[in-house]
Amino acid sequence: MDMARIAEPEKVKAKVSKSFVKPWLGVKYLFKRPVTIKIPFEKIEPAPKYRGFHTLNWKKCVGCNFCGQICPARAIEMTWLELNGKAEKRPHPKVDYGRCTFCQFCVDVCPTGALGFTESYMLTTGGSEEDFELYDWVPIEPDKVREINERFGDWRFPVVKVEKLGEGRIRYHLRDGSTFEFRILGYGIRPPAALRKPKSAPAKTSKAGGSGSGTKDENAGKREEKTQG
Ligand code: SF4
Ligand code: SF4
User: Fold this and answer.
1) Is the pTM value of this prediction over 0.85?
2) Which ligand has the nearest atom to the CA of 56?
């Protein structure tokens, strides 16, 4: 086996070329336009299908959690939601943009095509605690996000403010002045206690075993009353 040949340190001479001209070569860049842009005052057109913020068709989402399982950044949390006073039958993904790498594995793996994305990619905040709520995103319908994109055309996050109304109720203030309200009932794959179906009632007694109506306990109670009478 050939051993890699490594030169001994004393044989390695640092190539340092002293020059009084080189530092001045950078001066020419003072008069060139910077390659960076002033966000949010300037914008650039993202490439078609640029992997931006997520959207979700709530009706299509079956709550399978494939998106949550494949996410390499653990940015997805399944969330039980209530819309217009009615609890959704399945949990839906919530995305933490503090962790998300925008790889869109979650979109690729979604079996129903419920999870999607738009080219919107810009989320800038003032850094206050309230602003950080914007990074916790329960994706909304793609049509609404696209409508806002077309109206403003600057590829910014569709929500300007997240208002917490108490008892898990959330109100998104969207950029076009409209609002979107929902309630978070719980997290995880299993439904929260409030949504779990009560255990099935005890089996009814057979006709041969009693009066034919009522549960075992009720019939036992009736029998007791008769014996007392
Ligand atoms: S968004 Fe898609 S992958 Fe995620 S839970 Fe819903 S149906 Fe499943
Ligand atoms: S885009 Fe990638 S990192 Fe972001 S939520 Fe989806 S799978 Fe996770």
Assistant:
1) no
2) 1
